[in-house]
Amino acid sequence: MNQKFDLNSKNPQTSTMGRMPLMDVVEASPTRGELFVPAIKEVSLALTLSDFSASWRGSQGFRSEAISAGTVSICEFDQARYFEMQDSAKLAVVVLRNEILEQARENGRHKLTELEAHDVLQDVTLRRLLKLAVREKRDAFPSGALFLDGVATALASYLVNHYSTASSGARNSAGGMAPAVLRRCIEFIEAHLERDLRLNELAGEAGLSASHFTRSFRESTGKTPYQFLLHRRVERARTLMHDRRVSLTEVALASGFADQHHLARVFRRITSLTPSSYRRSLR
């Protein structure tokens, strides 16, 4: 049976402002038989979600292996692949936009390097990041665009620093932001708490690339942009809950959460209280 892994699925997280996401997530469940994966001119990583056996010709010649769930592959750039699937399998492929890899190269001093292809990797960090992306996709992206952009930036930086050819291993310390720039970024976040912010928007406010902005922001605040955003949303929710005429659903939406359940989950993680118990404590 001939099958094709379609990498052209549209990501529902594409911003309502028309910006493309920094990465796409595609899942497939191929059955026994031949599987064709088309060439793509962007960096892609595969995560196996089930055990299976397969044969293929890849970057290290012909291989026939039993693959365990959690195995990661850094796919060859712009190369079509054929697999002979000996079992059914569950797979996910994460595709990173070229722009985020270029930014990571610039900031990591790896401008002239290329990523090494690896058919079979047991890399705990890559596995964790890819699982985060897959979980977000399955849950219809409840954490928003800024979280997904942060995962894409972390993936790109990790790949460039650990899987680049002729990597010097040198790390570029971004340092903190200038106070005026940081203040402008925080004011921008405060002014747009209720909508789905993008990492490139915040980086643009600071005049930095996405990966440089993330490191500088964390150096200055002690939090990633996404963590900072969640804390500010919780603070707004706390303020709104003083008005008992406003329902918790309305509080959630006005504070930038997807729904009341999303508010409750994040609020409890940050404050150790549920929104209901916090509101009852107000007198």
- Average per-residue pLDDT, rounded, comes to 84
Looking at this structure, what is the CATH superfamily of the largest domain? Answer: Jelly Rolls
Helix content range: 40-55%
Radius of gyration: 21 Å
What's the CATH topology name of the largest domain?
Jelly Rolls
Tally of extended strands? 10
The low-pLDDT segments are: 12-19, 166-173
Per the principal axes of the C-alpha atoms, what is the gross shape? globular
Named at the architecture level, the CATH assignment of the largest domain is Sandwich
- Number of domains as seen in the coordinates: 3
The CATH top-level class label of the largest domain: Mainly Beta
Q: What's the SSE pattern?
A: EEEEEEEEEHEHHHHHHHHH
Strand proportion, as a percent range, falls in 15-25%
**Distance separating the two termini:** 67 Å
| Biggest sheet overview | 5 strands, mixed
Count, helices: 10
Structural class assignment: alpha+beta
Spatial ordering of strands, largest sheet: 1-3-8-5-6
What secondary-structure arrangement, pairings included, does this model have?
Elements: E1 2-4, E2 23-28, E3 33-37, E4 43-48, E5 52-58, E6 61-67, E7 72-74, E8 81-85, E9 91-96, H1 98-108, E10 118-121, H2 124-138, H3 145-162, H4 179-191, H5 199-206, H6 210-221, H7 225-240, H8 248-254, H9 260-271, H10 275-281
Parallel strand pairs: 1-3
Antiparallel strand pairs: 2-9, 3-8, 4-7, 4-9, 5-6, 5-8, 7-10
Helix pairs in contact: 1-3, 2-3, 4-5, 5-6, 7-9
Protein architecture, described:
The longest helix has 18 residues, at 145-162. 35% of the residues are buried. The strands form 2 sheets. The chain has a 5-stranded mixed β-sheet with strand order 1-3-8-5-6, with no helix packed on it. The protein has a 5-stranded antiparallel β-sheet with strand order 2-9-4-7-10. It is built from 10 helices and 10 strands. The termini are far apart. By secondary structure, the chain is of the alpha+beta class. Helix 1 packs across helix 3 (145-162), helix 5 (199-206) packs across helix 6 and helix 7 (225-240) crosses helix 9. Helices cover 42% and strands 18% of the residues. It has 3 domains: 2-98 and 117-139, Jelly Rolls (Sandwich); 179-217; 228-281, Homeodomain-like (Arc Repressor Mutant, subunit A, Orthogonal Bundle). Strand 5 (52-58) and strand 6 (61-67) form a beta hairpin. The chain has helices at 98-108, 124-138, 145-162, 179-191, 199-206, 210-221, 225-240, 248-254, 260-271, 275-281, and strands at residues 2-4, 23-28, 33-37, 43-48, 52-58, 61-67, 72-74, 81-85, 91-96, 118-121.
